[in-house]
Write a structure and sequence with these properties.
Two copies of one chain form a homodimer. Chain A is mainly alpha-helical. Chain A contains six helices and three strands.
Chain lengths: 152, 152
């Protein structure tokens, strides 16, 4: 390996700020969702299912959409099943595995919680950034996201 | 609660891109660190300890520095102790709890792994951004980070 190209101070600041932002933000949004006995991860599952036809997704598609392993998702879905928010359903007409389906309670939960969660996302992130900053962040990160998806 | 201010399409894109970037990046960097039997979380602990006087930190300070709860950190440190990378040490001269201390093996590990990890951070993040983008990200996120730290 050739000599390491260590990060410059400016590069290091940007990298560490990105890491800290994500952790602190998730910590804060988790805290705010605790009031509804949800985590940010629960919320993300509810959003994905609520936006899908018939409020259901294949487990494999849901794992892709939420960027996590099948096994981690499976544990997550079990916890959410225990809370009555989702159900598992086998596909009878094909062999491509199991669906996660939003229950009526899950649907009511996301309707009820969404206004509070979006207020938190605004307060702690979106409303603290200018339109230009939001645009730069998306333009900078979107190609990296596409590239990293190919590497999965 | 007044009518929810839902995110505009541009706001939603920026927010979702930020979330996806972080998850995919951590997934990728974890994969690359697997070769050394480390995770991104292990790496972060090693860096913090290696940069501290006498390569040691109070557990409470280490929890703050790595933005996680004392209990989560404690589990993490137990796993790293089992691998021989760190040790716990009681403070004899005060009551302010336990230190985490980098072992010689932990020190050698961070020296050996750092060049590979920084290469990954460059390949998947830093080198894919312009200086202007890096500067905008830091300028945009640093005040949010400061604000969120106060809310912890």
């Amino acid at each position: 390996m050739s000599a390491p190209r260590w990060l410059s101070p400016a590069e290091q600041r940007a990298w560490r700020t990105q890491l800290a932002l994500h952790k602190l933000l998730m910590h804060r949004l988790d805290r705010e969702l605790q009031e509804f006995s949800l985590t940010v991860n629960d919320y993300e599952i509810l959003v994905n299912l609520s936006e899908s036809p018939e409020r259901r997704m294949r487990m494999s598609d849901l794992a892709d959409a939420t960027i996590q392993s099948r096994s981690r998702l499976s544990h997550q879905i079990s916890r959410m099943e225990a809370k009555g928010l989702v159900m598992r359903e086998d596909c009878h007409d094909d062999r491509r595995g199991t669906f996660a389906v939003l229950t009526d309670e899950g649907w009511e939960t996301i309707q009820r919680v969404a206004p509070f969660h979006v207020a938190g996302v605004r307060e702690h992130f979106v409303d603290r950034l200018t339109d230009d900053q939001l645009e730069t962040i998306e333009a900078a990160y979107a190609p990296i996201v596409e590239q990293l998806k190919k590497l999965r």
